[in-house]
Amino acid sequence: MTTTVAAYAAPSSKAPLERTTIERRDVREHDVLIDIKFAGICHSDIHQAREGWGEAIFPMVPGHEIAGVVEAVGSGVTKFKVGDRVGVGCMVDSCRECENCLAGNEQHCLRGNVGTYNSVGHDGEPTYGGYSQKVVVDEAYTLRIPDGLSLDVAAPLLCAGITTYSPLKRWGAGPGRKVAVVGLGGLGHMAVKLAHAMGAEVTVLSQSLRKKDDGLKLGADHYYATSDEQTFKDLAGSFDVILSTVSAPLNFGAYLSLLKTNGALVNVGAPEEPISLNLFSLIGGNKVLAGSAIGGIAETQEMLDFCAEHNLGAEIELIEASQVNEAYERVINSDVRYRFVIDTATI
To answer: What is the longest distance spanned by two Cα atoms in the chain?
Structure first.
């Protein structure tokens, strides 16, 4: 037996999202039924709803930054009980058997993880995301939101938080390390908060100085405009780690020149266009050009606990569901500080 719930969906590629209804599966033995309270809007929602990353599944209910409360649990559930505060991120299943899954890297499941939306579950049914009233998720892919975090500011952590936490941790952001964050948007503002909390010296590299005051308040020590050619001269060889959070193509040679020897330029933004690169910009200085995709379930829980410990939530603009199409355009125009979050009570 399924449950009918209200949702906002894109009926086809590039079409405006509209209110509709979808079917949620019955609660299975290890499932939790979540009453969604808040859903963040990620730029990747827009990429997928508009097929910027390739062919997609429609109708599409986006949303992989989900925060809510457990409404019901299956008979075999041991991790959660009714009333618990929980979250769901970018994936809702994986094979659970491959080398990567067993190592806690479910996002890199060798058989392919099941995305929270725009994906097909192991039952053959399409998945629908968080722009909806309720969702049913296996307990193994459900996260506990600590009491110290409000659900509205916690929702974006399920993507923006883990997407930036994981590479900062992997590449050693911490005391004595200099970290640059490219872009101060939905991902970038969380990267600044997290790197600062980890103890690194943090610099924001943005196209202009328009958000400088915000960046310094969020925890940045320095703020530079990349539209000024002098920035690349003054900061040459400065950073241990550069985390690029933007979805536009960069001049990677110029940014690699800002790294110290053995430094790493890590990309979490995903431009739709291919890039070109002169490999001598990597070879000189033993530099690393890397990518990072969210994090595994255990690491995502670790990130949530870290954020609660350091009182880190996203900077959000709370909107009604009817404003989602306007919000998409504003995200594209970088007109949000710094994450739109849908109050799902308005769906």
So the answer is: 64
Helix, strand, coil proportions of the chain in percent (round to 5)?
30, 30, 45
What distance in Å separates the CA atoms of residue 79 and residue 76, rounded to the nearest whole number?
9
Does residue 323 contact residue 346 with C-beta atoms inside 8 Å? no
Please choose, from the candidates 55, 33, 60, the residue with its C-alpha nearest in 3D space to the C-alpha of residue 324. Answer: 60
280 contacts: CB under 8 Å, gap ≥ 6: none
Integer Cα distance of 143 and 85 in angstroms: 9
- Spatial contact of 274 and 299, defined as CB atoms under 8 Å apart: no
Of 341, 343, 285, 284, the C-alpha closest to 316 is: 341
Q: Rounded to the nearest 10 degrees, how much is the dihedral formed by the CA atoms of 12, 14, 18, 24?
A: 50
What is the SS3 assignment for 345? helix
Task: Report, as an integer, the average pLDDT of 78-83.
Answer: 98
* Residue 344, C-beta contacts closer than 8 angstroms, at least 6 positions apart: 36, 37, 38, 39, 68, 130, 131, 132, 133, 321
Residues 6 or more apart in contact with residue 5 via CB below 8 angstroms: 21, 22, 23, 24, 132, 133, 134
User: pLDDT tens, 254-287?
Assistant: 999 999 999 999 999 877 788 888 899 999 999 9
DSSP E strands: which ranges in the chain? 3-9, 18-24, 31-40, 66-73, 85-88, 91-93, 114-115, 134-138, 143-144, 178-182, 201-206, 222-225, 239-244, 259-267, 288-291, 316-320, 339-343
> What's the Cα-to-Cα distance from 240 to each of 188, 189, 211, 292, 294, rounded to whole Å?
17, 19, 24, 17, 21
Cα separation, 170 vs 149, in Å, equals: 24
Q: Are the beta carbons of 77 and 65 closer than 8 angstroms?
A: no
- Is the bond leading into 338 cis (omega within 30 degrees of zero)? yes
pLDDT at residue 1, as a whole number: 65
Q: Residue 102 carries which side chain, given as an amino acid letter?
A: L
Question: Which of 236, 137, 223 has its CA nearest to residue 181?
Answer: 223
Average pLDDT in the chain: 96
Q: Which amino acid is at 73?
A: V
